[in-house]
Amino acid sequence: MALDKRFIGREYGPFTYTIGAEKLREFALAVGGARPGAGTPGEPPAHVSPLLYDARAAKAGPYFDLIAFPSFAVVFAVRPFSAAIADPELAVNMLMLVHGEQELEFLDVMRPGDVMTTTGRIENIFDKARMSFLVVSSESRNQTGKTVVKGTWTAVIRGG
Amino acid sequence: MPRTFQPGDTFTHVRECDRYRPIYYAGASGDYNPIHIDPEVGKEAGLGGAILQGLCTLGWAVEAVAVFVGDPGRIRRVRVRFSKPVRAEDVITFQGKVRSVQDGLLTAEISATNQRGEDVLKGAVVEAFIG
User: Fold this and answer.
1) Contact: B67, A47; criterion CB under 8 Å
2) Which of A33, A51, A104 is opposite residue B73, by nearest beta carbon?
3) Among partner residues A33, A36, A99, which is closest to B54 by beta-carbon distance?
4) What CATH number does the domain containing B31 carry?
5) What homologous superfamily does CATH list for A1-19+70-160?
6) pLDDT (0 to 100) of residue A160
């Protein structure tokens, strides 16, 4: 069943998220290919930048602290997108849903202790080739009010 | 001497989706959609088993450029279309090509193909500050 276009413009949020050092490390190493175990995010593969997991190296580096791997932003910036997908009024068939497209813009680095506030809205709903497309935008600001991450999230629901 | 980047420069980054990577990524990202962690649900959804989170593949495309420019903090933008699922034991080759270098901003086009030569991403573009 096609999604109802009258939900275009619906807003979600604000959602607040505090960035923690261990979570940054865990994410960077999971993307980077480490094998986590109980009590450890795993051994960093050689290609993973120490700026992402080694606090001492990072403090001596260009950002004076650990930084997030850029796409760590999805951990909090996804909230409006997941809220839209789970919106009972929109009634998305989760089993038929795949993530179609993604754009992320990074306007600053993210460090432990940053408090991110994310808002978002449904930008578009359309049908193409027997599939429904749901496009949600997100904007995440840090504790100083600076916009740090902008996202465009596109879900494809097969079978319309 | 600082490194210089030119349009036409190329780079390659290879990543294997080891068996439990979708589960590790689920733990780190919070994306526990059953199609990523339960092969039975993946089959039911017509995906032939559990598939890797597209955002992990996006992360690898970002990583390819972060390694190339030498600093993950310089990534400015990423845009991808997910064209084919990545499954356990797939090996993804990311091939990057610098399209432009302008006002301190490097723009790279990235292809991402599995071991069968199929594109798992389409239209992937990553930008990084190099100024």
Assistant:
1) yes
2) A51
3) A99
4) 3.10.129.10
5) Hotdog Thioesterase (3.10.129.10)
6) 53
